[in-house]
């Protein structure tokens, strides 16, 4: 069976809470998703993710951290907007907006619908700081709820890839459907 949906872990395992996406993917090994779903830890390999977004998926769910002004460990579901002309594609790095722009630049087909299951970080070291492996407590505690959220979200997206995403519930939050923004960009 050809996977119809991609779940992508995004983040650097050596930069504290940025490892959230890879940790959720690792936790999914104990609670696998249906065979129609490809689950992959991309880490910081943005070029690989850009090419995989062109493989004909109906939907992609990126699992990442995003500063949204909530308490650390809060989960948000964000509907990513298609990349605009102001986002410059970048072949190196893992800024989700730039990865989407790169995928749009590389392919002739439309990109899949992209959702971001984001966790509010407590600690994200800047690029010039020392390596800080390991998640903070609140973000580590959000890994299991993120796996639960994926097990709720994925069946709904497989049934209808265009349907509004189901709410995450409390204490998690989910925003309304678009307009929303990718992590690191301003909301419309």
Summarize the model shown.
The protein is α/β, with parallel strands linked by helices and 188 residues long. It has helices at residues 20-28, 46-52, 96-106, 137-141, 143-159, and strands spanning 5-10, 37-43, 59-65, 75-79, 113-119.
Layout of secondary structure:
Elements: E1 5-10, H1 20-28, E2 37-43, H2 46-52, E3 59-65, E4 75-79, H3 96-106, E5 113-119, H4 137-141, H5 143-159
Parallel strand pairs: 1-2, 1-3, 3-5
Antiparallel strand pairs: 4-5
Helix pairs in contact: 1-5, 2-3
Structure description:
- The protein has 188 residues and is an alpha/beta fold.
- The chain contains five helices and five strands; from the N terminus they run E-H-E-H-E-E-H-E-H-H.
- The chain has a five-stranded mixed β-sheet, with helices on both faces.
Strand residues, percent:
15-25%
Count the E strands. 5
Series of secondary-structure elements, N-terminal to C-terminal: EHEHEEHEHH
Largest sheet features: 5 strands, mixed
